[in-house]
Design brief:
By secondary structure, this protein is an all-alpha fold. Among the domains are: about 100 residues, Alpha Horseshoe (Serine Threonine Protein Phosphatase 5, Tetratricopeptide repeat), CATH 1.25.40.10; about 110 residues, Serine Threonine Protein Phosphatase 5, Tetratricopeptide repeat (Alpha Horseshoe), CATH 1.25.40. The protein is about 70% helix and about 0% strand. Helix 6 packs antiparallel against helix 7 and helix 11 runs antiparallel to helix 12. The longest helix has 16 residues. The radius of gyration is 27 Å and the shape is globular. Pfam families: E_motif, PPR, PPR_2.
């Protein structure tokens, strides 16, 4: 059969179409095909390829394709440069994104929004504001991005001022850059009130809005679910005249987040009987629901559904599949999937899912071995990775290795230590019998110790028969929660183990007189 020769136009059409449809892997492979066939890509082909590479989310990949653009002198095209800004910002390479942005001779509103979104995503609100007010022609994306940035930074007053300014700007323009300004303002107002937790005002704004626009319905739906009003949200969902992918995904995700995985799956299967196609968010929520309460057969069915449909297997979905297989009792399937796909991962989330699954199911040594494998890749571990790794060290009693990982978080990776990391380390030291060192670590923490940390100290004190430290831990727990009966029970046991029967009687009398709660399953307390 004769070989079909494609030209630059053919490749441009296919690469761009695949990238826009979300098939990043196929678009990247096709772009590389242009190079192997000595076809010279044009600026449109390269822009489509950058879109696809951006979905892979690897900084090293961005640098490679940027170099190719420089080599072919295509970086001067606005479409290419804008997509490079978007791609760098998407992987939080803000210095590279800003350098590309500042070097552009001509920019359009999409370029400005890409830079703005990068700063908002990185929680650099001051830089985001600086970029926003320099945008020559702001559109709906510009305003929504800024308002969301303010809200995420808990700057509600600034968000409100931005909203008022947006309404004024839209009101002075009959047709702002081609979108329906009136409908946009209505939907944004519902969205704004919902994000601020002002559910009554969000409902009032919705009642006054034009009900023919799905965006307003979706905004109120998200607001209700954010407040945990699942029944009201479902009533609104059922009343919607038209539902899009966002509507279905929001409602399904809401059920998962409120512990109603059964309803999430029921709604997901109902969605499959409609003309609306599930996207990555929908499928990730469905996998989470199955992981919580579903069966392995359901999970395998969704896996097959993803593979047999034009759906890009993103890192987020890969992490969901690994988590689902492990929680449905098949760690072997999780490992098999991970081993088959890990060379395609560009972010840490699937690695975290596999490392965590191994640790939780008793394979702590395998979990740590996998972490070592991760360190040999170009993917950087994050805060979540180290929580799992420190927990695995705790379960295996690897104190020296745990200390090394704990110290390397900030030294090698620049990761900020949280109370969860300190909690893991205190638990590790306490279980290994290093009570003095554990107590010193608690005193050096930049934040106040919580119930979990003092519970770990109390458990370790009992295991080592350290009455003095046990008394201190119980006292600190009482300060944090006066009804924390489990600490009194643990202290009573410490006294009993030490033969201090008078003290045992005093503590048990306190339990009877003050009616403390016996929180048997309280994390961090071993009775």
């Amino acid at each position: 059969m004769p070989r079909i020769h494609r030209d630059a136009v053919s490749y441009t059409t296919l690469v761009t179409a695949l990238a826009r449809a979300g098939h990043a892997g196929r678009a990247v492979a096709l772009f590389r095909g242009t190079l192997s066939e000595n076809v010279v890509p044009n600026e449109v082909t390269l822009a489509g390829a950058i879109m696809a590479f951006a979905r892979h989310g690897a900084p090293v990949t961005m640098g490679m394709i940027h170099g190719f653009a420089l080599q072919r002198a295509l970086d001067g095209f606005v479409i290419v440069a804008t997509n490079l800004v978007h791609a760098y910002a998407g992987v939080l390479e803000l210095c590279s994104a800003r350098a590309m942005f500042d070097g552009m001779t001509h920019r359009n509103t999409v370029t400005w929004n890409a830079m703005l979104n990068g700063y908002v995503k990185a929680e650099m609100i001051d830089m985001a504001v600086e970029v926003f007010w320099r945008i020559p022609e702001r559109d709906e994306v510009s305003w929504l991005t800024l308002i969301d940035g303010y809200i995420c930074a808990d700057l509600i007053s600034d968000a409100m001022k931005a909203y008022v300014q947006m309404v004024g700007e839209v009101g002075t323009n009959d047709n702002e850059n081609g979108f329906d300004a009136y409908a946009f303002v209505q939907a944004t107002l519902v969205h704004f009130y919902g994000r601020c937790g002002l559910i009554g005002l969000a409902q009032m704004a919705f009642r006054l809005s034009d009900k023919s626009h799905t965006a307003s319905w979706n905004a109120l739906l998200a607001a209700l679910l954010r407040k945990g009003l699942i029944h009201e949200a479902r009533e609104l969902f059922d009343d919607m005249p038209e539902r899009d992918t966002v509507s279905w995904s929001t409602m399904i995700s809401g059920y998962v987040q409120t512990g109603r995985s059964d309803m999430a799956l029921k709604l997901f299967y109902s969605m499959l009987n409609t003309s609306v196609e599930p996207n990555e968010v929908t499928l990730a929520s469905a996998l989470s629901a199955i992981a919580d309460s579903g069966t392995l057969d359901q999970g395998k069915w969704i896996h097959d559904h993803i593979m047999n449909r034009p759906i890009q297997l993103t890192d987020n979905l890969s992490a969901g599949l690994i988590d689902m297989y492990a929680k449905c009792g098949s760690v072997a399937d999780a490992v098999q999937f991970f081993n088959r796909a890990n060379d395609k991962f560009s972010s840490v989330s699937p690695w975290n899912a596999m490392i965590c699954s191994l640790a939780i199911h008793g394979y702590a040594h395998m979990s740590l071995d996998l972490f070592s494998q991760l360190q040999r890749t170009s993917i950087k571990p994050n805060s979540i990775t180290f929580i799992v790794v420190l927990s695995a060290c705790c379960h295996t009693g690897m104190v020296a290795k745990g200390k090394y990982y704990f110290e390397s978080m900030t030294r090698e990776y620049g990761i900020r230590l949280t109370i969860k990391h300190y909690g893991c380390m205190v638990d590790l030291l306490g279980r290994a019998g290093y009570l003095e060192e554990a107590e010193q670590l608690v005193s050096m923490m930049p934040m106040k110790a919580d119930v979990v940390i003092w519970g770990s100290i109390l458990s370790a004190a009992r295991a080592q028969g350290n009455v003095t430290l046990g008394e201190k831990a119980a006292e600190e727990l009482a300060k944090l929660d006066q009804t924390h009966g489990a600490s009194k029970v643990a202290l009573s046991n410490i006294y009993a183990d030490a033969g201090h029967w008078t003290n045992v009687s005093v503590v048990r009398k306190e339990l009877e007189d003050e009616n403390f709660e016996r929180l048997v399953g309280r994390s961090g307390i071993v009775q």
